[in-house]
Amino acid sequence: MNAYVRSASGIDGVIDFDKALQDLSAPTSLLPAYDSGDHLHPNDAGYQVMGGLINLNSLN
């Protein structure tokens, strides 16, 4: 699904949370610093990173 969204035409924009939180040594995993412990959901630090990626001016 991520590959499709990243390459699809007709999409106004993408905020790639997957890439931002990805462990480069294990690309299908969260970076341990952002892992809540269930290996699926981000922890508070991960959500902070995700929030920092959003340009609120682009939502107008």
Structural class: alpha+beta
**Mean of residue pLDDT values:** 93
Order of the strands making up the biggest sheet: 1-2
The helix/strand series, from N terminus to C terminus, equals: HHEEH
Spatial gap, N to C terminus: 27 Å
Q: Supply Rg.
A: 13 Å
Low-confidence stretches: none
Domain count: the total is 1
Q: Give a short account of the largest sheet.
A: 2 strands, antiparallel
The percent range for helix content is 25-40%
How does the overall form come out from the CA principal axes? flat
Strand content: 5-15%
Total number of strands: 2
Number of helices: 3
Organism: Paraburkholderia acidicola
Protein name: GDSL-like lipase/acylhydrolase family protein
InterPro entries: GDSL_Rv0518-like (IPR053140), SGNH_hydro_sf (IPR036514)
How would you explain this protein's 3D organization?
The structure is a single chain. This protein is α+β, with helices and mostly antiparallel strands. Helices cover 33% and strands 12% of the residues. It is built from 3 helices and 2 strands. The chain has helices spanning 2-7, 17-21, 44-52; strands at residues 22-23, 26-30. A two-stranded antiparallel ribbon has the order 1-2. It starts with a helix and ends in an 8-residue tail after the last helix. 5% of the residues are buried. This is GDSL-like lipase/acylhydrolase family protein.
Main attributes of the structure:
alpha+beta; 60 residues; two-stranded antiparallel sheet; 3 helices; SGNH_hydro_sf
Provide a brief overview of the structure.
By secondary structure, this protein is of the alpha+beta class. It has one domain (2-6, 13-59).
